[in-house]
Amino acid sequence: MSPARTLSSARGSAYHVPVLLAEIEALLLGARTVLDCTLGGGGHASAFLDRGMRVTGIDRDPRALAAARERLADYERAGQFRTLLGNYADLSGAGLAYSEKFDAILLDLGVSSHQFDDASRGFTFREGAPLDMRMGTDADLDAAELLNTIDEVDLSALLRAYADEPRAARMAREIVRRRERRPFATADDLVDAIRAVLGPRSGAPDFARIFQAVRIAVNDELAGLERALPALRDRLTPGGVLAIISYHSGEDRLVKNAFRDWSASCICPPKHVVCTCRGVALGETLTRRPISATDEEIELNVRARSARLRAWRSAR
């Protein structure tokens, strides 16, 4: 049995099965303090705590925090574990002191297993599920409100950017046409609109791609990640490691580009004769290419199939 399978089996819970756990533990080895920015059910945090690390867990989902606190109550009572309700894109708003830094920071993007499996949360295209998709109470609109109010041009741009949908304009037009007759309310409404454009042979991969795009927009995920990256970097102690698991090409691109820029000694435009930037690398990228889940882990947890892990270490 592979290490990934062993660790994931041990740390999984009814709330969420942690992804790439063995690889994360190896990258964060030696850290004493960890900021888990997407705590979920506490799968990764549990492993860190067992290694004697002190963990601060943040999540925008109150139910996720409640599940993690119940699971890790002994560590919380011992003062080794604490939780904060909030968005990793606004650490100060979550109540984290501005001066507090960490040896390691983990960001596991996407949606937890529990959020997917709970039809009432509206992340799934299961028949009759509500169009909600809000990860927390800080989202301005749920998915139904977004689809019923967004401008057709903006909707087309959203589907093109977040779903790589070549027929984005046609799909946006179809959604607007349908909502004029009856507002979108359930997953069936969006599935029917997708089928009307992509044809009867469209299936789960198409639905998943479009639903993911709507979810990203509802929760402002890409813009939030772009804002968060430099803030998370500045929360690291010297030699600290930032590890990020992404599930969408747009997320992975943002992380890759940020790590590349931070690892370069000069980021001046090519035509600059004299360097006018910082002139020194802020740290080093630890993963030349993203780390993917093994076949064994994907067999255990199918949601790991699109996971991509990248890591970066700050200068000492």
What does this structure look like?
It is a single chain. By secondary structure, the protein is α/β, with parallel strands linked by helices. It has helices at 3-11, 21-27, 43-50, 62-71, 73-77, 113-117, 143-149, 152-163, 168-181, 187-198, 204-218, 221-233, 249-262, 295-300, and strands at 33-36, 54-59, 81-85, 102-108, 236-246, 283-285, 308-314. A seven-stranded mixed sheet has the order 3-2-1-4-5-7-6, with helices on both faces. Helix 8 packs across helix 11 (204-218) and helix 10 crosses helix 11. The chain is globular. Residues 1-10 have low confidence and may be disordered.
Characteristic terms for this protein:
2 domains, 14 helices, DNA polymerase, domain 1, 14% strand, seven-stranded mixed sheet, alpha/beta, Rossmann fold, 316 residues
Give a short summary of the structure.
With 316 residues, the chain is an alpha/beta fold.
Rg measurement, Å: 20 Å
Put simply, the count of helices is 14
The order of strands across the largest sheet is 3-2-1-4-5-7-6
Q: H/E element string?
A: HHEHEHHEEHHHHHHHEHEHE
Oligomeric form = single chain
CATH A-level architecture of the largest domain: 3-Layer(aba) Sandwich
Structural class by sheet pairing and helices: alpha/beta
Q: How many structural domains can be distinguished in the coordinates?
A: 2
Strand content: 5-15%
**C-alpha termini separation:** 37 Å
